[in-house]
Amino acid sequence: MLNRARLLAGLLLAALVLAACDGPAFSEEADSMEAMAAADFAMAAPASIQTESGAVPTSKADGSVPIDDLGRQIIRTGRINIEVEDVDRAFARVGEITVASGGFVVDSEIFAGPRDETGRSTKSESAYLRLRIPADGFDSARARIAELAETVVSQNTSSEDVTTQVTDYEARLRNLRATEGQYLTLLADAEGVEDVVLVTDRLFATRGEIERIEAQLGSLARQVELSTLVVDIQRTYDPDEDDTRGPLDAAREGWETSWQVLEAILEWSLAIIAFSWWLVPLAVLGGVIALVVNRRSAPADSGGGAETDS
User: Fold this and answer.
1) How many CA atoms lie within 13 A of 267 on its CB side?
2) Which fold has domain 74-162+227-240?
3) Could you tell me which residues come within 8 angstroms of residue 297 by beta carbon, excluding any fewer than 6 positions away?
4) What are the sequence ranges of the domains in the chain?
5) Residue 210 has pLDDT above 90, yes or no
6) Under a CB-based contact definition with an 8 Å cutoff, are residues 139 and 53 in contact?
7) Position with higher pLDDT, 60 vs 157
């Protein structure tokens, strides 16, 4: 009986801990403590490191989410649109810069340009790449990619501070692991099948919540460690390309176009004849019938005319 009372008391205590982890009061308290710590640190820190641009993310020894020099977890994303003379060469160079920076290409696509007389595309018109680059090399990689351009059409970056979210997850994870330890202790002291089933059910639920939060922390860690950069590449338009055409080029294009039109007319005519072959017998039959009718009506017309003359 005493063991049963201890078991129920332990389950009640664990349930209270779980409720405290999930409640809004805990999140608000964590936000308040974090804000106070950040404010104290900002007041004590030199002005040279109070800007976000100079932050260099580092990884903690315990494998948790990396932090910058101000103790913040920042997810950075960016996009750059450039114009180049040779899209294929720029496409290859962006891949080389990404690998040299310790990153990788998530996905990419290249679009063909105008086709020549043989039907082949001589130059690529545009390309797209989505890159994942270590946060500490994000700005340098973006600058190197911009150097490939004849014109940088546009570029932008954005940062998302997930420090509060990470702090909340880490605190909940600590409490859940403590609760899991209590359930394991209760399971060892449990007597009877009913007690074992009850504690095991709570233990499995707690373990599932721990794994869910660990997965979310891992996802945030990867996003903080590897920034996302989207690169759009376009071929530079040369207005002089249209000015190189002379009168002979225009005459040749007109001649070729006229032949294309005649060929199209001939093809359609042959197609109509091929699909209308069944009209030929009907036309012949109609001609024969008309000829027979005309011959039969001719004597009657001549007889009527003779009577009129007499």
Assistant:
1) 6
2) Alpha-Beta Plaits (3.30.70)
3) none
4) 2-65+175-214, 74-162+227-240, 253-290
5) yes
6) yes
7) 157
